[in-house]
Design a protein that fits this description.
The structure holds two protein chains of two kinds. By secondary structure, chain A is of the alpha+beta class. The model of chain A has no long low-confidence stretch (mean pLDDT 94). In chain B, the strands form two sheets. Chain B has an eleven-stranded parallel sheet, with helices on one face. In chain B, strands 2-3 form a two-stranded antiparallel sheet. In chain B, helix 2 packs across helix 9, helix 3 runs parallel beside helix 4 and helix 10 runs parallel beside helix 11. Classes of the chains: A alpha+beta, B alpha/beta. Strand 9 of chain A pairs parallel with strand 2 of chain B.
Chain lengths: 144, 334
Amino acid sequence: MVKLFGKYEYPEGLYYSKDHLWAKVEGENVRVGITDFAQQLAGRIRFVRLRPPGREVKRGGALGTMETGKWVGPLRSPVSGVIMENNRNLRRKASLMNDDPYGEGWISIIKPSNLEEELKDLMVDIDDLKKWLEKEIAKYSKEK
Amino acid sequence: MNRNNLLDECFRRTSELPRLIKEAYDVRRKNFPDTIFFSMPGMIHFESSFYNATDPYRFPAISITGGECSLNCEHCKGRILEYMFHAVTPKRLLRICSEIRARGGSGCLISGGSLKNGSVPLTKFIPVIKYAKKNLGLKVVVHTGIVTPRLAEALSNAGVDAAMIDIIGSDETLREICHLNVGCQVFNRSLSLLEEYAVPVVPHIVVGIHRGRLKGEKEALKIIMQHEPTAIVIVVFIPMEGTPLVNAKPPDPLSVLRVILAARLMMPDKPLILGCARPLGTYRSRIDVLAVKAGVNGMAYPSEEGYQVAEKMKLDIRFSDECCSLIYKEMIGE
């Protein structure tokens, strides 16, 4: 686990999308969730609605939606494929995505349809990630 | 049925809600065109299948007391202020207003925590508000809290586009939840003062503010009915983390519906809006659908379901990035 900018945790070995989701290859499937940066930016997550298992999802398409006091929007899948399973615990406690974004707060498991190609577009190198994240932090920063 | 009976009917447990919903929607059709206004003002990053609004400067909320609030109401404890830009000096407010202009935003909500007497300390910011209106061309809406004659006059001179004030209809709620030792008739006086100085006034009712249950909502409506509000906004108590009411349940959606129905039927020609504060998720979806069916004219941050029902009812949907209290301007073509 590395901590970027002294604040945002990013485990090594995961793939990261520019929509702030992570992907972890697990055998034939991919487990996905949101990053620490995303959960900190969004604030306490109060509600998640996920598309049901069996549905196809395109890379960048919505796996579902998430609502916080300051963020309402889609969770964009980092890979294309079929949703195999959703984290049922999020229905009861969406804030697991805040408390443990890379563990108990995972979102879905996807059977990918074009993994090899799509992994090339995800970031895995921490230095690349850091450079990109710096721009994202600037983009979302606001005056207080 | 006379007005008081009709008001009671809306709040009676045994009343026929489907019939009242139909009556309310008929009232809407009789008084307004088939248009509904969906507002997505700044601060909330909003992406949906029907509209995206993500720049926080499009119409931000600014707290002139930073994160401080002397009242520390039980339902909020100043948490709402955390989401706002903070500008505790006029200079800082000017900087933020200039930034809004530079980034293409159209205005802002100037809010803040309250002083112990229930007012928001707006007076020293009036010159900047005036400047933002006149020189930057921004629309400015304010949360006033309890209004003094001096503030009403200053807001009028500054030309604010709307003054928003929560109307609490129960002395007990004022005392226990808002920590204010005044009677709720203080809001009558505040509304009168704003009217006297021709400030467009948009009263809000917080349904369920008394620990999630209905208490002073009917009285709040009665207070508002004595005036000529520019629009009425209904919002809903949200149990917030970091407050003593985190475990209170929000009012059930049918209770919220009753307040919406009463407002629609009792003030048939006033724009009625479902405001931004309401619980999220399936609750929000349910309230949104009921509100559209009960004839609201606008809604802040509609859910997918709220949008879909408006489409199904063939309402002409208009979108805006501004505060929902300003839909009255769009309705009159300003």
